[in-house]
Amino acid sequence: MGFFDKLKESASKAADKAKDSVEVVRLNSQVAAKRKEIEKMYLQIGEAVFEAYTSNAESAAEELIKANSATIITLKQEIEQLEIKIRTLKDEKDCVCGQVLPLDAKFCSSCGHRFEEPSEVVVQANEPVAIEAPHEAAATTERISVKSCSNCQATLQADDRFCENCGTAVEGQ
Ligand SMILES: [Zn+2]
Ligand SMILES: [Zn+2]
Asked: Cα of 108 to ligand 2 centre, how many Å?
């Protein structure tokens, strides 16, 4: 590949990244809007309960509590979906312990949790899923290499307690 082709290629990769971060900002603002809506729902429930209590008609609040609770549950599910999308765009996933890991990590570097294959990010079941060739492992590890796994020689970060690739406990941690 010639120099200018390489230049063009890296430029289009950068454009892809830029597009992704615009999308992340857009999704984040959607999450914020939904969180605000949930706050409003809680407030309405509180007011309705108060009204019902002070007017001695406790059951009067019931309908509103039911309706708002259903809406809150839906909103929370939507937020969860958006957050999965955001992490996918950022090439990240969350461990059960709260550690944020690269999407292709097989084990958590903090608690050693094992991720099922394929990665936990599930696309809507009714959408056709494009089969993508597995990413080259080398392409995603642009981090500073400090040490490597004693078992599989994968690159480890300074604070890793477990290998992200094979789950081997890191010595001296
Ligand atoms: Zn973990
Ligand atoms: Zn390893």
From this structure: 11
Q: Is residue 76 pLDDT above 90, yes or no?
A: yes
How far away, in angstroms, is 37 Cα from ligand 1 center?
Answer: 31
Judge whether residue 138 has pLDDT over 70: no
**Each residue of 38-61: pLDDT tens digit?**
999 999 999 999 999 999 877 888
Q: What domains sit in the chain, N to C, each tagged with a CATH number? A: 1-90 (1.10.287), 92-173 (no CATH)
- Helices marked H in 55-155: 62-89, 137-140
Distance 81 CA to ligand 1 centre (A): 21
Going from the Cα of 60 to the center of ligand 1, the distance in angstroms, rounded, reads 46
Q: What sign for the dihedral angle of Cα 6, 9, 11, 17?
A: negative
Taking the mean position of all CA atoms in its chain, how far away is CA 74? 18
What average pLDDT does range 63-80 have in this prediction? 96
